[in-house]
Amino acid sequence: MARYIFITGGVVSSLGKGLASAALGALLQARGFSVRLRKLDPYLNVDPGTMSPFEHGEVFVTDDGAETDLDLGHYERFTGVPARKTDSVSSGRIYTNVLEKERRGDYLGKTIQVIPHVTDEIKDWLSIGEDEVDFMLCEIGGTVGDIEGLPFFEAIRQYAQDKPRGQCIFMHLTLLPWIKASGELKTKPTQHSVKELRSIGIAPDILVCRSEGPIPQKEREKLALFCNVRPDSVIAAQDLSSIYDAPLAYHREGLDQAVLDAFQITPAPRPNLEKWDDVSERIHNPEGEVNVAIVGKYTQLEDAYKSIAEALTHGGMANRVKVKVSWVDAELFDREDAAPYLENYDAILVPGGFGERGTEGKIKAAQFAREHNVPYLGICLGMQMAVIEAARNVAGVSKAGSEEFDHEAGEKRFEPVVYHLKEWVQGNQKVNRSVADDKGGTMRLGAYDAVLTEGSKVAEVYGTTTIDERHRHRYEVDIKYRKPLEEAGICFSGMSPDGRLPEIVEWPDHPWFIGVQFHPELKSKPFDPHPLFKDFVRAAKEVSRLV
Ligand code: GLN
Question: Which domains does the chain carry?
Fold first, then answer.
């Protein structure tokens, strides 16, 4: 049965709990253990699928079609373990389950309460798959003391009590602020945070303390004494220049050893960190730089395109270059010439997105890339924009557009080259949708197979003609435009296995122009860069050498 590590946070949010959890997962793997990482989010949304990327950052999609928190992306990137639907849960999901059971009469007339009904629902969820791995790492979103987080904290407290002694530990992440005026690192906020945690019955076994610099021995001992942890379980988490240094940095600080000690696992298996040494070496020793423009809408918040930024970094590592990303707001050139905004980049990426705002600019970005032989990667909406561009400017469909924009505007203005998909096949099941459906969880979601055309650019890039990739979209390129578009020169080089849904388009006579209906960025890892990103950055590197 799995050992559980519960990861909580205190003092302030955004301390990098997700990253710490992911790095710890990687370190346990390096010692030969199997791991699974999970996220418990206290908010009331059923899942982040309907939340704005401005509020919540990117929505990370799993193979089995769940729309989850972006921390699951970190987990996958660090451990390579594909996340599942059951690795992410919110208060909204838990309460929905409880209320559905109540309506069905499953509780046999009982009064439904937070304890035990909500906490039991959380504990049932925690135990899913407990026999499958050595360690289950469960991160609780938010910070201790948040009202909405209380049922989760209570549930993990109970869970540790229900299990045999020594099967669950608690790791608490806090901040040690540096007070410049007095030149001191302050431990008081951490003491308060641990006090808060202990008041709800949870005593941390390990403290991970974010700080700008090292923690002097004196402060370490003080923290240990006042927070009732062992001095060697006070782990410093200093700011790092790359997130991919985290596993090695945490190892040097003794985090994995402290965890194994807390579980009394002796002798501790020796870690093999070669993979992370290599990752770190590549990150810190680039031999050049390429400049990539990401032309999108959510450019103010980098987290909105988290996986894309990471996948580009991975592509850079594979090519030994640093990828410098510039976030370019597509709306800037909705109505004017795109060239002044785009001409200084080695490659252009148009990412996924929703709604009409900025789309004319994205279409112009695709046109600029096509006409100027600049490498172009269009992802999801970025692929749809490339197809609309081809239809308007090459195939002569002057009113080409997406039904998405007409639906939003409530009037018909475009010829729908991209249309709302109403029926498709998932596995061996038919899925039906209508425009009036709920917004949450109703897109084409999760992993789908695609078949690539032999001899195409993408087949060469992937090194195979059958792939599966993750989807998250409601609209599709209409197959009935395949013929006129191919006559215009763009090639539909990847299709769904039944041949009905265009998955990939490319311009064969362009150095590198590929649009994909799926999200390849979700599967890229620092130690296993996604082939599309690897080759996209290679193409950008070639351009950067030419200029
Ligand atoms: N808005 C588009 C659709 O729903 C694209 C979605 C995306 O880019 N993820 O089809």
Answer: 3-279 (3.40.50.300), 288-546 (3.40.50.880)
